[in-house]
Amino acid sequence: MTESIKGVERFDSPGKGRGLRVTKPFKVGELLFSCPAYSYVLTVKERGCFCECCFTRKEGLAKCGKCKKAFYCNVKCQKADWAMHKLECSAMTAFGENWCPSEMSRLVARILAKKKTQKERCVSEKILLIGDVQSHVEDVDNEKREMTEVDVAGLHRFYSKHLEIPDHKDLLTLFSQVACNGFTIEDDELSHIGTAIYPDVALINHSCLPSVIVTYDGTSADIRAVKDMKPGDEVLISYIDLLYPTDDRNNRLRESYYFTCECQECKSRSMDKAKLKVRKQSDPFEPEVINNMVRYARKTIREFRAHKNIKTPSELLEMCEQSLDHMGAVFDDSNIYMLHMMYQAMGICLYMEDPEGAISYGEKIIKPYSKLYPPYSLNVSSMYLKLGRLYMGLEKHSAGISTLKKAMAIMEVAHGKNHLYLTELRKEIKKK
C-alpha cells in the first residue's frame, strides 16, 4: 500500500532497517498520509461510549441484540463489524462474568480471523513490516514471558471454538510482533480507546526528535508533519513518552523495542539538565544526593505502578503527596519526576471528583510541559483540554476559554483543522 502514497516512499534507513522518507516538501500540519487499520479492537471499558466498528463517540448507540454488550451507530456499522464481533458475541454470552480475555488476545484473535477470511500474504508479512521481531522472542524477561503466556492461554480459552490457532511457537512470535508493532488509539485527552495494527505506520522509525505525529480519525491513523520536511527527509515518530531524560527513554526503548536511540537529542542530552532540574540553594547539592533522589524517584514510580490496581484512590494520592514532599527537598517543581507524580495525583483527583485538587496539580504541570515536550505535543494539548474543561465546569469561563484555545492551536496542527475533535471543541467554546 505504501507504493500508492503520494510523496512518501520506502527505503533502507541506515542502521534502522526499512523506513519511510518523503519525496516532496511537507509543511508543518500537512497530512502525509492516512492509514486504515489492518485490524483493531475497542477496549472493553469504552463499550457503550464508542461504536465498535467506526469508533465514533456518541450517545444513543444501539446494542447488539444477542450479547447486549457491543454497541453500534446503526445497522450498517453492526453488519460491517459482524465478521469480527462474531468471534466474541456467543462467547461473551456463554462465559458471562468470566469472559475476560486481554486486549492483546482479542486483537490477535481478530488478526487470525482476518488472515483466514482474506486471501493475503502470510499475516506476519502483511502487518509486521519492521524489525526482526522473531529474534526477540527469546530476549523477553520472565515477567513479559509470563504475561504473554497468560494472553496465549486466554486466546485458547475464549476463541478456540471459532479459530484455527497456530502452534505455540508461532503464536508466541505473533504476540511479540503485535506487541512491538501495535498502536494504542487514544482520544483528545489521551484516554485509551483501543488497539490497532497499521501496516504502513509500522514502517516508520523512531526518533526523540520526531518529524511527524500520529493521530486518529475513527479507526484510521493520520500522519502529519510537526516540522517542515524537504525531499529525502526520513519520516520519524516517537515510540515513547518524550518527557523523560535520555537514560530513561533508552531504557524504555530497550525494554519494549530492543534498540537504543542514536538521534541528535540522545547524543547531545541537551534537554536533560532542564528535565532533571534541582532546587536552587546557596550551597549546591552534591552529585550523590541528586543521584540518590533520582534512584528514589524511579523506585517510587515503579512502586506506584505496582500498587495502582491494589490500593484505594486515597492511598494512592497519599503515595503521590509523600513522594512529592520527599523529592521536593532536592528537585525543582519542574523536574520530570515531580511532574510525573503530579500528573498521577491529578488523575486520582479527577477520579475522586475533586476538580479543585485536579486544577491545583494541572496548573503546576502545564508550564513545564509546554517547555519540555516538543512543539505540537499531544501531551500538552491534552493537559490544556483537561484544565480548560475543569475551569468551565467550575464556571471559570474566561480561564476555560483561554486554555481551550491553547489546546486548539496544537490540535489544529496535530489533528488537522477539520477533525471532529476540533469541531466539537469549537462548539464547547461557543457555548459560553
Automatic annotation (TrEMBL):
<dbReference type="Pfam" id="PF00856">
    <property type="entry name" value="SET"/>
</dbReference>
<dbReference type="GO" id="GO:0032259">
    <property type="term" value="P:methylation"/>
</dbReference>
<keyword id="KW-0808">Transferase</keyword>
<keyword id="KW-0963">Cytoplasm</keyword>
<dbReference type="GO" id="GO:0007507">
    <property type="term" value="P:heart development"/>
</dbReference>
<keyword id="KW-0949">S-adenosyl-L-methionine</keyword>
<keyword id="KW-0863">Zinc-finger</keyword>
<protein>
    <recommendedName>
        <fullName>[histone H3]-lysine(4) N-trimethyltransferase</fullName>
        <ecNumber>2.1.1.354</ecNumber>
    </recommendedName>
</protein>
<keyword id="KW-0862">Zinc</keyword>
<dbReference type="GO" id="GO:0060047">
    <property type="term" value="P:heart contraction"/>
</dbReference>
<keyword id="KW-0805">Transcription regulation</keyword>
<keyword id="KW-0156">Chromatin regulator</keyword>
<dbReference type="InterPro" id="IPR050869">
    <property type="entry name" value="H3K4_H4K5_MeTrfase"/>
</dbReference>
<dbReference type="InterPro" id="IPR011990">
    <property type="entry name" value="TPR-like_helical_dom_sf"/>
</dbReference>
<dbReference type="Pfam" id="PF01753">
    <property type="entry name" value="zf-MYND"/>
</dbReference>
<feature type="domain" description="SET">
    <location>
        <begin position="6"/>
        <end position="240"/>
    </location>
</feature>
<dbReference type="InterPro" id="IPR001214">
    <property type="entry name" value="SET_dom"/>
</dbReference>
<dbReference type="GO" id="GO:0005634">
    <property type="term" value="C:nucleus"/>
</dbReference>
<dbReference type="GO" id="GO:0005829">
    <property type="term" value="C:cytosol"/>
</dbReference>
<feature type="domain" description="MYND-type">
    <location>
        <begin position="51"/>
        <end position="89"/>
    </location>
</feature>
<dbReference type="GO" id="GO:0008270">
    <property type="term" value="F:zinc ion binding"/>
</dbReference>
<keyword id="KW-0489">Methyltransferase</keyword>
<dbReference type="InterPro" id="IPR046341">
    <property type="entry name" value="SET_dom_sf"/>
</dbReference>
<keyword id="KW-0539">Nucleus</keyword>
<dbReference type="InterPro" id="IPR002893">
    <property type="entry name" value="Znf_MYND"/>
</dbReference>
<comment type="function">
    <text>Protein-lysine N-methyltransferase that methylates both histones and non-histone proteins, including p53/TP53 and RB1. Specifically trimethylates histone H3 'Lys-4' (H3K4me3) in vivo. The activity requires interaction with HSP90alpha. Shows even higher methyltransferase activity on p53/TP53. Monomethylates 'Lys-370' of p53/TP53, leading to decreased DNA-binding activity and subsequent transcriptional regulation activity of p53/TP53. Monomethylates RB1 at 'Lys-860'.</text>
</comment>
<dbReference type="GO" id="GO:0140999">
    <property type="term" value="F:histone H3K4 trimethyltransferase activity"/>
</dbReference>
<keyword id="KW-0479">Metal-binding</keyword>
<keyword id="KW-0804">Transcription</keyword>
